[in-house]
């Protein structure tokens, strides 16, 4: 299965993802295909919608203290629901669907989510730090929200101008 990252301003990124209801080999194959796409593009998270599949599934692999992302640390999160959020933190985020742009984004510092794994088992995860930020970023994708949507009006205008210039330079 060959997957490609959908890039801004593609309208598919604005699509709201639907719940996963069938946990079968087809889902497992899709999740397995997402992993190399994320790793080959130096990502730490990838939502299904970013590879053109509008389902509530995402994967994460936060680098360890050595900057490595061993496969054993991979999190597959399906149908996530944030059940608790507290604190506030600001982190410079980037996105595989909005390449080469980084902005300071305000997020909750601590979250608790309920989700399902690839087999449909219900799980709970408490997250803080980069894991919390990455989960919130990827859940936003499932809702059709990009990190650039969280920018102030003036920063968003500056982003749009820079992005158009970058696209012209690509051609």
UniProtKB/TrEMBL annotation:
This is Peptide deformylase. Belongs to the polypeptide deformylase family. GO terms for molecular function: metal ion binding; peptide deformylase activity. CDD domains: Pep_deformylase. It catalyses: N-terminal N-formyl-L-methionyl-[peptide] + H2O = N-terminal L-methionyl-[peptide] + formate. It comes from Sulfurimonas aquatica. The active site is at residue 138. Gene3D superfamilies: Peptide deformylase. Fe cation binds at residues 95, 137, 141. Its EC number is 3.5.1.88. SUPFAM superfamilies: Peptide deformylase. Pfam families: Pep_deformylase. Keywords: Hydrolase, Iron, Metal-binding, Protein biosynthesis. It is an enzyme of class 3 (hydrolase). It comes from the Bacteria.
């Amino acid at each position: 299965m060959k997957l490609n990252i959908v890039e801004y301003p593609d309208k598919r990124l604005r699509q709201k993802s639907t719940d996963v209801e069938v946990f079968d080999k087809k889902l497992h194959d899709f999740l397995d295909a997402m992993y190399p796409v994320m790793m080959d593009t130096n990502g730490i998270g990838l939502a299904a919608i970013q590879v053109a599949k509008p389902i509530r599934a995402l994967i994460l692999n936060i680098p360890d203290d050595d900057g490595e992302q061993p496969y054993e640390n991979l999190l597959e999160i399906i149908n996530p629901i944030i059940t608790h959020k507290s604190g506030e933190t600001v982190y410079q985020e980037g996105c595989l669907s909005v390449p080469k742009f980084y902005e300071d984004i305000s997020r909750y510092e601590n979250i608790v989510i309920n989700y399902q794994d690839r087999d449909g088992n219900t799980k709970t995860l408490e997250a803080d730090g980069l894991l919390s930020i990455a989960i919130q970023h990827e859940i936003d994708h499932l809702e059709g929200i990009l990190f650039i949507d969280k920018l102030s009006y003036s920063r968003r205008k500056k982003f749009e101008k820079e992005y158009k210039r970058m696209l012209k330079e690509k051609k």
